[in-house]
Amino acid sequence: MSTHRARRSRRLPLLAVVAAAGVAAPSVAAANTPATADTTRPAAVQAPDDYYQDATGKSGPELKAALHTIISEQTKLSYDEVWDALKSTDEDPDNTSNVILLYSGRSQAKDANGGDPDDWNREHVWAKSHGDFGTATGPGTDLHHLRPANVKVNSVRGNKDFDNGGEEVPDAAGNRTDDDSFEPRDQVKGDIARMILYMAVRYDGDDGFPDLEPNDEVDNGSAPHIGRLSVLKEWSAEDPPDDFEKNRNEVIYDSFQHNRNPFIDHPEWVGSIWK
């Protein structure tokens, strides 16, 4: 297990937090019901005061290098362990038996995971063929870019780069795709951008894995690049981190990898690094 910085106390289960706040516990809805990834959660706690201290006052390449060092201190999961982790990181706060699916926004039973068309599976937001890292422990299992997604919708996205435009994706309203790109629904565009940019900072070519870098192209194939950077920057600005995304960052930090996505804590750093 990797060493990591001192952390705050462990996160209370969602229902306990809600009860402590004097709010009635959410009712349990039927499985596989429509929902959005913006469902209200208790506000997430910010990073410990000293977590980003080595990045303070930096910008551009110096900031990127400092953040790389900070977030590389992490505990790594196996690909099998990712299944259970996602059931915590992406739990539906209105129905704790379910997870929220990234692209469709659907709330689906946690145990409905697998390879059947109506199941949910593990979506690599930074497509694993872009750099050919597969499901190797490291980039292939990093929770900061792995999300539950409907099997059919995940297949439509495939390894396409991100860009605007295309035809609407069946069973996933608000998502669009064409031959070489995929546009997610508005509610998670910023999430997608910040996951991609996290990967570009975390995997910098110094740990046996490719140097992942976004570019402003599509159809990147197996190169360790993904685009379009200009569009991802727009998405990050237009869709700032919401409570669901902040809480997810906190759960990954507190309970699993013990590192954070800096662009959720400090979305202003996107423009500081990628000018």
UniProtKB/TrEMBL annotation:
Q: Molecular function (GO) terms listed?
A: hydrolase activity; nuclease activity
Task: List the signal peptide residues.
Answer: 1-30
The answer on whether this UniProt entry bears the keyword Hydrolase reads yes
- Note down the stretches annotated as region Disordered: 154-185
UniProt keyword annotations, A-Z: Hydrolase, Nuclease, Signal
Q: List compositional bias (Basic and acidic residues) regions by residue number.
A: 176-185
Q: Which SUPFAM superfamilies match?
A: His-Me finger endonucleases
UniProt keyword Iron, yes or no = no
Pfam families noted in UniProt: Endonuclease_1
Name of the featured protein: Ribonuclease
